[in-house]
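Narrative summary of target 7.
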Amino acid sequence: MTSFSSLGLRAELLHALTDLGFTSPTPVQSEAIPRLLESDHDLVVLAQTGTGKTAAFGLPMLEHIDPADRSIQALVLAPTRELCVQITGDLERFATHLKGVTPVAVYGGASIRDQIRAIQRGANIVVATPGRLLDLLGRQALDLAQVRIVVLDEADEMLNMGFQEDLTDILSNTPPEKRTWLFSATMGREVRQIAKRYMHGTEELQVGERNAAAAEIKHQYTVVHARDRFGALKRFVDADPDLFAIVLCRTKHETQQLASQLVKDGYVADAIHGDLSQAQRDHVMGRYRARTLQLLIATDVAARGIDVSDVTHVIHFDLPNDQESYTHRSGRTARAGRSGVSLSIIGVRERRKIQQLERMLRTHFTYVRVPGGPEIGKAQLMAYLGKLKGVNVQQEALEGLLGIAHEELAGFSKKELIERFMSVAFERLLGQFGTLPDLNVDMSAKDHTLRNDRPSSRERFSTGRQLFINLGRAHGFDKGRMLGYLCGVSGLSGDMIGRMHIDEYHAFIDIEPDHFQQVFNSLKGASHQGRQVRVDEGRGQQARGQKDRGPHGRGSKERGEQGRGDRKPHRKGSRSFDKGPKKTHRKGPKSSGRW
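Modeled conformation, tokenized:
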């Protein structure tokens, strides 16, 4: 078996790994670390989420850092603040015995002044989200001229969030002779392009099958009516008392609403999303890591960077937009060699999406039924027996009652006592769960009138609010650049941002109503390349948008023939599940083309 000591790491790093309880490297660590230590070439590493990629680039990066040099020698770019915090924490633990090595995380949502002070104290490694790093560069608060290593972590997700232009700006501030390491779970066309554009003399390392699902994950789906999704979720939780899950929703509003409903019904749950302050996010994640929460309800963006090794289930309360997002979502379970379950709760019309995922991931999705009352009752009873075996008897508290119980039950044998206990417990559980209705949709039925009630993109933005911002083409913004800037500052994913109208010195952007205030608050007091950002609600343009008949401008003279095509630049990194030509339907809203 390969050991860390055989990979060529210095003694201080080996000492830290021993302190952390790391005994042997994962496959991606075994293959990547020696190459990153010995080769001067740029490297693309393809490996599934949860396989130990942070150590795979973090350990060789620390080997190359000169502790006596207080300039920024290494830069790690990550798509979300959660991932920034996680990477920085891992680097700090690896560098425990390396005096003078100081990683600093910079990301939106936290005090920029505190981050500037931390950099000025002598950070030789910076871990950053693109949006906040550009803000710091605009303020001339840091200098990347001495950077020797750049790591693009979760590169596919950065492209999905619209950061391509930001990456260009950031990398133009780094030396051309630097080494670039790109780590990604998937290798789509966009990731291939970014490797060609920003890397030279590139080598590629692939661990596992490309763009395939992790073998340790069991992919399951269940089919219910849209109105029964919440009930189905509770049934799966009740049927597995040991379940420790992340539940994924599309929007902040859905995560908060779902968490509130679960808490109201007696479940131990909380939500994490972009509207929370960093202190609130840290509090929720602290509870989850300590397992005082059973269910963490999260958006896609907020879930990135969650590295909790014993998550048993990832539950897709809403299916994501594309295959890459599903891969990253499901990778939150089955980490560090463990097994896990990725369960999708879908409506009737979404069955074809499961079939497309099967083809793209080259794996099988198992159909499972929503548990019924007897199944839940049996699972709850077995869990109760487990607690009974491990209970610590409180002799003092029960002193007066134990004597009475011994006297009352003295005439029964052990077998009779067990039978009576099981009968009473089962009757109680049967009364609680036995009358539950069947939520499963008959898979043999071909009822094409059933509709998933998830709002379409047009419906979500038809009542949207419009943001005015004093940045436009004169300041270097096109639609892709603006999308990347807004995602980086606010923490939103690109599909929460709608139609854009960019003039020379200002822009109007449609924002999904639930997220308008989040974007607005994130931009207040911000600056871009020394220019103070001013934001307001764009009422005049809103009226024009209503005249244009919908959020995507059908019938708009200004939009011309583009129509829904305007959305394409907003999702530069996304990959549609449907590769064929779009089909025209006589009825219903126009398809988004993502599935």
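The two ends are 43 Å apart (CA to CA).
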